[in-house]
Amino acid sequence: MLQSFWKEILESLNGDGSGEKPVLHSFIKQLKPIEIKDDRLLLGCANAGLRFYLEKRLAEVEEIVNKSAKKKLKISLTIIVPKTKKEPPPLLSFEPSIEDFIIKAGLSRRYNFDNFAVSTTNQVAYAAAQAVVDNLGSAYNPLFLYGGVGVGKTHLAQAVGRKILENNNKKKVCFSPGDLFTNELIESIREKSTMSFRKKYRKLDLLIIDDVQFIAGKQAVQEEFFHTFNSVITFGGQIILTSDRPPTEIKNLEDRLRSRFSGGLTIDIQPPDFELRSAILLIKAREKNIDLDIEAAKIIAERIGDSRALEGTLLSIYAKIIGKQEKITPETANSFFSSEIEKKVKKISPNDVVRAVCSFYNIRQSKIKSDTRESQVVLPRQLIMYILRFHLNLKLDQVAYFLKRKDHTTVIHANDKISRMLAKDPGFKQGVDSIVSSLGLST
Questions:
Q1: What is the pLDDT of residue 18?
Q2: Do the domain assignments include residue 101?
Q3: Total structural domains in the chain?
Q4: Burial bucket for residue 327 (CB in 10 Å: 0-12, 13-18, 19+)
Q5: Cα 317 to Cα 300: distance, rounded to the nearest angstrom
Q6: Mean pLDDT calculated for residue range 389-406
Q7: Residue 241: its pLDDT value, please?
Q8: How is residue 112 annotated by DSSP?
């Protein structure tokens, strides 16, 4: 009865041509029916590799089988143990790929050391991450990486996880965002399955918690993470934590956790400088098979301070040249920004910018073009350079000439400094947005 039922299922798979999912269909055909009871169907796998592959796609298997059976069945998989040693080996000898292990660990396939650009703003963090790979559980434990949005914290932490699995796929690695850890714990409490939760997290070779600040203020979560932290360390495992601020500045974090977070190596990753932004663009272009001139990359990097906006800008420029030319050139980049600026600017003069900034900071306009290096004048002057360059589209030498600076390198330094401050200081950004808005420009 069971064998004839399964034979009909397999014949129906042959009948539909297996056009949509041929690989999955071929693997289903290698299963053996073991038992059917009520709405449950137990199928046997020839080896652990086949079971590993299909369990991750169990919903798809059920959909295919149920469609053929014309009834709703809940499928379970087991490994068939050969009755004698003389039985021939299975036709399929499936071995999980490194990508399978990476996905199982919760890691993204996008992040690795090869596509992580290094400069002075992140080289210490990069070196520490490499040391962790070479000395898992003993070097910098925990490794605490913090910084603003888009500085590469998650990328670097996940690159460590990937490298560990590439070196030894038997290692137990788990990447979990702080909010996911919280939700999983709440769900395990609700489902009375906390033992399963603890089994997943407490005996790992590498535990990565991203945005760990999200566990602060939640008593039960902090209690569980405290014990998880201690357990991983006790068993010789490594912990990597990322956050938008250092442990000392995470509000509502228990002192015992703050102490443990600070017990390893804490590194501040700064917003990417001009050189790093240029490198990021070239890496992104290579990944997406976009031909990007290095000088064009510099133009984009000079104008875009937010590292997460770099990829979007690159794709926007590329979208404008598809079908017209193959390479993003300096002319292409300049043309893109000129057209964007023209959409925003409403006959704003450089002097209008000087007046707006000086009014905001309550300083005399005459001091802006003077040689004074007074602290209360230097920052407004640099901000004016930034607005003239990025919102009014003046060239570097034009900005330098207008403000009576010696050369354009002063303007480059000012633009880089203001870009970093905007990325790192929300209060400063709010003030700049207010000035820009008062001029009738888009923020």
A1: 43
A2: no
A3: 4
A4: exposed
A5: 10
A6: 89
A7: 97
A8: -
